[in-house]
Design goal:
alpha/beta, single chain, seven-stranded mixed β-sheet, 7 helices
Length: 208
């Protein structure tokens, strides 16, 4: 799922000249796939299925799902419907999220949930201490042909320096009102704020 980040020639020229260049934070780009042959703006409506949970914290999948729903809505790339795991319509399909689907199953999902694509995944890891860590595996499937539109697999560790820098950018560019240096530290100690940061980064890969 690796993507190569290319620095535009003009930006490279500025950097080599020693000029300071200020720009919005670059989205997390090393661990996601975006199908170049598909137009996400043409998808229509997506059903976001409440994430599975491989951690020992039941509430985290609910929190991450809700944060993803809000972050993706802000991107306005496609229509979005939130479907809970206990929703009778979803449960009636009796599907294993980690399996591949037949065309008949894809058609059944489309009819039952009234959507054109489905966003499914798992919270693969969650640890609130000694430092916040969240792992996600997500995929967006086209229900017309079963082709992967977008996918992501990543672990966010608040103790990681690269993550710490992106948290600072997140507060600088996304949470500008009342910004203080201390506030970025709250993301590393507040699980809900960290979840919102993670959801923001996921959404940015949908429309980088």
């Amino acid at each position: 799922m690796n993507r190569v980040k290319i620095i535009p020639l003009l930006l490279l020229t500025f950097l080599l000249a020693g000029c300071q260049v200020y720009s919005a934070p670059v989205p997390l780009a090393d661990y996601y796939f975006l199908n170049p042959d598909k137009d996400l703006y043409a998808v229509g409506r997506v059903a976001l299925i409440e994430l599975n949970n491989s951690s020992s914290y039941p509430q985290i999948s609910v929190d991450v799902t809700e944060a993803l729903f809000q972050a993706l809505q802000k991107k306005q790339v496609f229509g979005l419907t939130l479907v809970r795991q206990n929703d009778p319509a979803w449960r009636s399909l009796q599907l294993d999220l980690d399996s591949t689907y037949t065309l008949e199953q894809l058609s059944a999902i489309r009819r039952t949930l009234n959507c054109d694509a489905v966003l499914i995944g798992t919270v693969t890891e969650y640890r609130p201490y000694p430092h916040l860590t969240i792992g996600l595996r997500l995929k967006l499937l086209d229900l017309n042909d079963g082709i992967l539109l977008w996918g992501l697999e990543q672990i966010w560790d608040s103790a990681d320096k690269a993550t710490e820098y992106r948290i600072k950018d997140y507060f600088l560019f996304q949470v500008r009102s009342g910004y203080e240096p201390l506030r970025e530290q709250l993301v590393a100690v507040s699980s809900l704020k960290f979840v919102k940061f993670v959801a923001y980064e996921v959404a940015e890969t949908i429309n980088p």
